[in-house]
Write a structure and sequence with these properties.
233 residues, mainly beta, eight-stranded antiparallel sheet, four-stranded antiparallel sheet, 1 helix, 12 strands, elongated, disordered C terminus
């Protein structure tokens, strides 16, 4: 049984300059109290040819995690362009938002990213040396790809039971979802993928650059209902 459901991810300040920070507004709910923190991570894929060019832009722990709804902004610096092959600075790549519990990743949200010049003449006749100050980053926010992994969360405390009326907990876990994430680029061969349209549901929770609101008696509730429309490829 999953304990955390990501209900919506919004890409802020998008499109933006390549050199600007990357920002995700994340909303999720926790179904019962967890003993450990959630680890969120943002990874930028520098090249489709070799994973050694992948850059973990930041990793943060969020906790304590108690039952309730949450919203926070995860902001990270842009990737280090000196660690990306020059041929891959312009064009399409992938950025990953992941969350793990006890070191085990249970959700991965992938986005295609298109980096291109802000001027038509530069796009048609790109210079030999990449001009970073003219590059625009466009994260395709309306077409996220989500992967769910089965992990063991803490089981909630069993309710009081009367004699002769046992309670049975379903511990089979969630099924994988079908589809693909950036083709062979990000596929790990073991899990399925699903495309979500407008929001995410179900399954998916501080550090510098993050703001959090909690609907659990510790803060103001989130405005409006989460977006849960889905489209499976």
């Amino acid at each position: 049984m999953s304990a955390v459901n990501v209900t919506h991810v919004n890409v802020l300040d998008n499109p933006s300059r390549f050199t600007n920070p990357i920002q995700f507004e994340i909303q999720y709910e926790c179904l019962f109290n967890l003993q450990e923190d959630l680890e969120w991570k943002i990874t930028y894929v520098g090249s489709a040819e070799d994973e050694k060019y992948d850059q973990v832009l930041d990793s943060v722990l969020v906790g304590p995690v108690v039952q309730g709804s949450y919203r926070f902004v995860f902001q990270v610096d842009p990737p280090d362009h000196t660690r990306i092959p020059a041929a891959d600075l312009v064009g399409v790549t992938v950025i990953l938002l992941t969350c793990a519990y006890r070191g085990k990743e249970f959700i991965r949200v992938g986005y295609y990213v298109n980096n291109d010049y802000d001027d038509e003449e530069l796009r048609e006749n790109p210079p030999d040396t990449v001009q970073l100050d003219r590059l625009m980053r466009n994260i395709l926010a309306d077409k996220p790809r989500v992967t769910k992994f089965q992990v063991e969360f803490d089981m909630p405390a069993a309710p009081q039971m009367q004699a002769g009326n046992p309670t049975v907990f379903d511990q089979t876990g969630d099924r994988s979802m079908d589809g693909s994430l950036a083709g062979e680029l990000m596929s790990d061969g073991n899990e399925g993928y699903q495309q979500l349209d407008g929001g995410m549901h179900p399954e998916a929770g501080m550090g510098m650059g993050m703001q959090m609101q909690m609907q659990n008696g510790l803060g103001a509730p989130m405005a409006g209902p989460p977006m849960v429309d889905m489209m499976t490829e």
